[in-house]
Amino acid sequence: MTDNLNAYPASDGVAPDRWASALHLFDNGPGGAREESTAERWERARLLFDARDYSAAAKLLPAVVEEAPEQTGPRLLLARAYYHSAQLRRAEEQLRLIVERDPVEHYAHLMLGRTLQRQGRETEATPWLRMADAFAGEFPDDDE
Known about the structure:
By secondary structure, the protein is mainly alpha-helical. It has helices at about 15-20, 40-50, 55-65, 70-85, 90-100, 105-120, 120-135. Helix 3 runs antiparallel to helix 4, helix 5 packs antiparallel against helix 6 (about 105-120) and helix 6 (about 105-120) runs antiparallel to helix 7.
């Protein structure tokens, strides 16, 4: 028998999508199924997002947002997942909630502007993009 172990070279680590899937390998072990905690769901959604599985992340994140509505991070990641999976109305809804609750969340202003642009609503997007530029310290030249 030959040693085939060396036939499989080591990689730089486990791909995020495989890790996210592996989180549930032992759910039905001793003691039966257990419910995933909010923190575990948040971590799995982040891994899926990092693996560019935006639709899967968007399915997990509403429960996280519902369980921690005061947290900006999960809601912003949900908006980004919606944006990248072309669920633009849902992304807009989440982003408007974020800027309503936290008017200085500069990334939400940028995302809202980009979301409106993707919907063909350029005029409505302009003030949001200007605000994002102002937060970033980028001001238009006086000549324009």
